[in-house]
Amino acid sequence: MGEMASVDITEDEAQLYDRQIRLWGLESQKRLRKARVLVIGARGFGAEVCKNIILAGVKSVTIMDHGVVDEQDFCSQFLVPRSEIGKNRAEASLERAQELNPMVEITADKEKIDDKPDSFFGNFDVVCATECTTAQFLHLDNVCRENNIKFFCGDVYGFFGYIFLDLQIQEFMEEVTTITNTHEPTGEPLAKKRKTEKTVQNTKGTETYVPLQDALDVDWTSESYAKRLKRMDPSYFVMKALLKFCDKKGRKPSPSEREKDIESLKEFVKEELTKQKIREDFVPELLLKDVFAEISPVCAIMGGITAQEIIKTVSQKERPHNNIFFFNPLKCIGYSACFGV
Amino acid sequence: MAASIAGVFENDLQQAINSSKVFVVGAGGIGCEILKNLVMSGFNDIEIIDLDTIDVSNLNRQFLFHKQHVGKSKAEVARESALSFNPTVNIKAYHDSTMSADYGVNFFKRFAVVMNALDNRMARNHVNRMCLAADVPLIESGTAGYEGQVELIKKQLTQCYECLPKAPQKTYPGCTIRNTPSEPIHCIVWSKHLFNQLFGENDPDMDVSPDTADPDAAGDAGMAALKGEANDQGNVTRVTTREWAVKSNYDPEKLFRKLFHDDIKYLLSMGNLWKNRTPPKPLVFGEVPDAVAGCSNETDAVLKDQKIWSVAECVEIFSSSCRNLYSQQQRLDLGDNLVWDKDDKDAMDFVASCANIRAYIFGIPQKSRFDIKSMAGNIIPAIATSNAIVAGLVVLKAFYVLRGQLENCQSVYLRNKPNHKNVQIVPEACLVEPNSKCYVCSPKHEQMGVVNGSILKADDFLQNYELNIVIVQRCLTRDGPLFEIIGSETAKPGSPEKLQPENGQTDDDDDVVHVIDGESTSNATSSIRKRKLET
């Protein structure tokens, strides 16, 4: 984290942040206040992440997006006014983003990631990227690793969403509840009174993360991974197929190409499963049909989960996910699993 | 919006969204998020209700509101902000209580789905009953800190909100509050009662003077002696705290002497109370310690409100807040009273200082104003992310409801820590069937085992009354009535404004109640007593 002298929370801030300070404590709030966050990609998912971290009271948010506002944004991107269609998405989001919390410095950046020197990213403590190609995600992860920047990347496709975390080495404090059973003999050998005691302790923890490349390069034919397949949710393969789709087609699945894109996606899934020697029906087809635009309630879920992970990371309180969190809309389940270790 | 772009949704969902009329109950943390999700998804016909106005402490998560909106109606401002996302959407906003008679069963029948975004049990019970009566699907949800849950309530398909008894709100015995506090919360409750005795609506259940009927105090001879001791006015008869305060012109020093000296000495005279307890130490107004035991010198480690006051500081704050509250009271219309509000500086200062003075007297550790506000105000910490996640889940479930796929509406929980399988958003496997004995939603009338001497607790459907009904069996006379009321304590009708606007405050005030329906199984007569709600 950037080094900075501890600054007092003002009366105004204490009032505004009262309900959250009562939850995560003053120290966490002070750490949030120092955090500089870069949010790459300002569609629905990005907008939700921005909203949540701005409300939480980080020091600054830079919203980076070279694209322009289009119809699809109106499915879930509530920071851009309808009148701004055709304008740069980051700039169009600025006004409403600032209204969320005047105490946060918010800037818009219209440039492309590929045009930015690596040193640019050194201005941030956290980078959260969406709407990128796999190559861009990998490049960003590398740059962040080299500069001790906490890295998040992911996407929402229709009703499906995932977020990958690379926090390199994350140290944190967590509350650990231990339940101990104590026996109290009462004279007779058969009559023993059992008491349970619950103690809550603040303990230090560490999580170590692998680079994105490792998480994406899992060999499912290997013994350890093949074992995991038995009870595994198929979301990992949905993510891989969608990444492949974007890399190959240069775009996310499009509502106007719904039927065709679903077929393409099924093909990409089939390719990956075959390559990994996994049975074809591992991924239910139902999971592949609602992957269009970014659906607002799912952006809200993923944006909430992601922002909370960013908050955990910056405040070093509680254990963050390691290393991919998925939302599977068919089962309505949100879980994390570790890949690439 | 999503439902206006072909190919985003499957046809049936797109049509359902475009044509459904939906109702959001509450425009706070979850309500703002739900409203945003509904508008962005393409709903065209939304109604939203909230009785509350916007407070600055809402702004960390109720993102449709900004600083300039403080004091305005939540429902109305939420509507305006949401309109900026889609100017053509129809949103009707009601700045009103959902429990008002204006929103009856026919009102609820108009909606394809109702989504609760409430923060108190009474309103949830009410909407539960309305939706059951109207047979409209209800999506219930809630958050607390990092956690939350979403569940579907549908008549005869799932459990209703009242199928399972909910934990009653914690209450404390009167003698603990009045005579033998041992924890900070006892002192805080006492101070809130004191506020009401002095400035608020008079309530005999909130007496603050020593309780001579305390069973622990039985057998004290010394009591009589002190009882005869003349007080300030030279008057030996007991007067109410309020009368006494009025006669003393609310002079802080006189109030202090009575509450923190004379009444304490009275308690000390009840020797039995102190056989196994640390006796309280009466305080003299000008002679209180001004150092804080164990305080640290770190000034920016804590918020101003998190510092522990010295007793001397407490006395000063007690005096000034008392004077300010007295002025506030003087400015009221005749017959009006102050209502305790945790966000009113003087009201909060008063309770915090009194609680700490009392705690000091009884050797109980003192608390900061920050912590006292949490306890006195029942504050539930709240953040944006939990509300965003839960509201997202609510609208996803609403999609299933509108498509007629209720079997996909199992409950879902947001957990602070992932479980052993690393699941953080945890779905239930299946819908939970209604409780066949539920007095609210069960269609059948089960045998309730009412016998002579049974005491039944009841409330009316609209929760205006809570009654204890004692069943006494008599022989049925040939032409006599099936039942008769043979006794009743004078009952005040429940005030319709009982549900105060509460920012983020829960108001759990029910015990488990049972309703008698129709005639009881024995020919009985009953007496009815109104039971007051405790706060």
TrEMBL record, chain A:
Subcellular location: Nucleus
Top-rank lineage group of the source organism: Eukaryota
Domain THIF-type NAD/FAD binding fold: start-end pairs: 17-330
Predominant localisation class: nucleus
Pathway: Protein modification; protein sumoylation
Entry keyword set: Nucleus, Ubl conjugation pathway
InterPro entries: ThiF/MoeB/HesA (IPR045886), ThiF_NAD_FAD-bd (IPR000594), Ubiquitin-activating_enz (IPR035985), UBQ/SUMO-activ_enz_E1-like (IPR000011)
UniProt GO molecular function: SUMO activating enzyme activity
Any one GO biological process: protein sumoylation
GO-annotated cellular components: cytoplasm; SUMO activating enzyme complex
Subunit structure: Heterodimer of SAE1 and UBA2/SAE2. The heterodimer corresponds to the two domains that are encoded on a single polypeptide chain in ubiquitin-activating enzyme E1. Interacts with UBE2I.
UniProt family annotation: Belongs to the ubiquitin-activating E1 family.
Protein name, per record: SUMO-activating enzyme subunit 1
Species this protein is from: Gryllus longicercus
Automatic annotation (TrEMBL), chain B:
Transmembrane portions of the chain: none
Molecular function via GO: ATP binding; metal ion binding; SUMO activating enzyme activity; transferase activity
Keyword 4Fe-4S: no
Pfam short name (any one): ThiF
Any single GO CC term annotated in Swiss-Prot or TrEMBL for this entry: SUMO activating enzyme complex
GO biological process: protein sumoylation
UniProt-annotated binding residues for Zn(2+): 160, 163, 438, 441
Pathways involved: Protein modification; protein sumoylation
Active site: 175 (glycyl thioester intermediate)
Domain Ubiquitin-activating enzyme SCCH stretches: 334-373
Keywords tagged on the record: ATP-binding, Metal-binding, Nucleotide-binding, Nucleus, Transferase, Ubl conjugation pathway, Zinc
Binding, ATP: 26-31, 50, 58-61, 74, 119-124
Similarity field: Belongs to the ubiquitin-activating E1 family.
Subunit-structure text: Heterodimer.
UniProt protein name: SUMO-activating enzyme subunit
